[in-house]
Specification:
single chain, TIM Barrel, eleven-stranded mixed beta sheet, five-stranded antiparallel beta sheet
């Protein structure tokens, strides 16, 4: 009998130990569901259904009912280009279709040139700048809720999809997809929750009316309703851009193109606008320009007039770029011109800029784009090849320009230009491709934003006996007339061009030919790298087959 009891006691102890071991294992497995959150004792910030509190550089501040977010955090979550403009001692921020500024002394907000009274201003504490984000909902297109009972602030972007659902019964909202996970909130039957996401696990991630984020079983929710659709930016051009520049200077009227139809083209860029020597935006539209716009629109072409700084020169351009006030005046003038002439966008062609003004030029485009987007207009920006002269090449931050503008137009020509001491091609295929790769890989520009600019001209070079070099421009349409009888063309497969060389007296003549073959090779890069399209400098220099060649090559990208 004693022996039997002894065995029962041993078995009982073993069973107890096993139960304890199982409990310990269970606790260890489920322990992560009960870890104390590091943000429990501070204001939690929920942005678009994500708790970003641990990612904040500085705590959220609430003073007199105003919610403040640090400038560093706004830079992280809303506007990476936000900065303090010393000229006006205000914080300047851009987001989507808005450019806004808020100062440190006056309770006012300037949005797209219009001034609004607000209940707070920017503040600085220990070198940290805070902005009254609850007063800036129109800038960032958001709605904010302060759930004081839970110490939670929610920020929702109004351009994002939002789905709501009803609960079928009283529910415990779990921290993780596990019935043993801790409860973060409770909801009652018939409560409305925001449905964030669901998956094949049978759980749906939700946000409660208290701002808490957690999980409930998907079958416990019903009547899913999309209360707000995702806002997508509609592209003005469906497919690839096929553009040409139409240059006629400020002293000549726009050409009469009545009755003309250019095959495949969907954008034209006439030289309507330019900065004068005083830095003012002048126009060359007139009645001929109005007729030109009407002709373009009647053919289904978008009109993105070129805005040039050539007349203003490098010093005047620098003066404008380095002044916030002057930049805003120029931007306002551009906006008014766009409205006046009902055009579809602009092509900013600022060349010959001090390398030191690179960031200021970027600021100009950063500040211009929201004003254009507000009107549904396109901003395209011209840039040269990445390597070269400081004031012609190194003056562009292609990464920033490509990020904020709708299109970055790479002017892939004048590989060897008028000032070159060596004869060479205007735009060799290998040089164009190498430059493209640098813009894509080094500058990290989205390929679909890059428009490849191509020359409809070349140069005939004269090399004298003493080695001096000079050149003259030859338009594509005149090339064959410029080749003497008996001179044979030689194919260069690296450049994807024909080349000629011949003697003229004591000098040597050389020409790298731009024709349908060389253009087709360049356009093939659009297909190869999935670029945004092509642009040609300039109309009326081409042979008639060029537009068919470009159209057919661009159509390959959509096959």
């Amino acid at each position: 009998m004693r022996e039997k009891k002894k065995k029962e006691n041993i078995l009982r102890r073993i069973l107890v130990v096993l139960i304890l071991l199982l409990m310990i294992i269970f606790i260890l497995i489920k322990a992560e569901n009960y870890i104390r959150e590091a943000t429990e004792d501070k204001i939690n910030l929920i942005i678009n259904n994500n708790n970003v509190t641990e990612r904040l550089k500085n705590d959220v501040k609430i003073e007199n009912g105003i919610i403040y977010l640090s400038m560093e955090d706004i830079q992280n979550f809303f506007d990476k280009y936000i900065y303090i403009e010393d000229e006006i001692n205000e914080v300047v921020t851009t987001y989507d279709k808005k450019i806004a500024s808020v100062g440190f002394e006056v309770n006012r907000l300037i949005i797209n040139g219009s001034t609004t009274k607000i209940n707070a201003c920017a503040i600085k504490e220990n070198e940290t700048v805070y902005l009254p984000i609850s007063e800036m909902t129109d800038v960032y297109n958001i709605e904010i809720a302060n759930i004081e009972s839970k110490n939670i602030i929610t920020i929702d972007s109004l351009n994002r999809e939002q789905i709501k659902a009803y609960t079928k019964s009283n529910l415990s909202v779990k921290w993780k997809k596990d019935i043993f996970s801790k409860t973060v909130d409770k909801v009652k039957k018939g409560d409305i929750v925001i449905a964030i996401s669901d998956d094949e696990s049978g759980w749906t991630k939700i946000r409660t009316a208290n701002g808490e984020i957690g999980y409930v079983k998907s079958n416990k929710l019903t009547n899913f309703t999309t209360v707000r659709e995702e806002w997508g930016q509609e592209k003005q051009i469906d497919g690839k851009v096929n553009m040409f520049w139409d240059y006629f200077s400020q002293y000549v009227q726009a050409p009469d193109r009545t009755g003309q139809k250019v095959e495949g083209v969907n954008v034209v860029s006439p030289s309507f606008f330019y900065l004068d020597k005083d830095g003012k935006l002048n126009e060359n539209v007139g009645n001929s320009g109005l007729a030109y716009i009407e002709w373009a629109h009647s053919n289904g072409y978008k009109v993105w007039p070129m805005i040039s700084n050539a007349d203003a020169g490098i010093k005047v351009t620098s003066t404008i770029l380095n002044s916030y006030t002057k930049r805003q005046e120029l931007i306002q003038d551009i906006v008014e011109m766009c409205v006046k002439y009902e055009i579809d966008g602009v092509n900013i062609d600022f060349e010959n800029i001090y390398e030191a003004d690179k960031d200021k030029y970027s600021r100009f485009i950063i500040e211009l784009v929201p004003r254009m987007q507000e009107m549904g207009l396109v901003t395209s920006v011209d840039v040269t090849a990445p390597d070269g002269d400081p004031n012609w090449s190194l003056c562009y931050d292609r990464n920033v320009l490509g990020d904020v503008a709708d299109y970055l137009v790479f002017m892939a020509y004048d590989q060897y230009g008028s000032s070159s001491a060596k004869a060479g091609t205007t735009a060799g295929y290998n040089w164009v491709e190498t430059s493209l790769k640098k813009i894509i890989e080094y500058d990290e520009v989205d390929t679909e934003k890059i428009i490849l600019g191509m020359p409809l001209f070349t140069r005939i070079w004269t090399i004298k006996q003493d080695g001096t070099v000079s050149s003259n421009v030859v338009n594509m349409v005149d090339i064959n007339k410029s080749i003497p009888a008996g001179v044979e063309k030689q194919w260069n497969d690296t450049l994807k061009q024909y080349y000629i060389e011949y003697k003229s007296g004591t000098s040597t003549k050389k020409m790298w030919i731009e024709d349908g073959t060389s253009i087709a090779a360049k356009v093939s890069l659009v297909t190869q790298y999935n670029l945004g399209g092509t642009a040609c400098w300039e109309k009326d220099r081409e042979t008639s087959n060029v537009w068919t060649i470009i159209r057919e090559e661009l159509e390959k990208t959509s096959e």
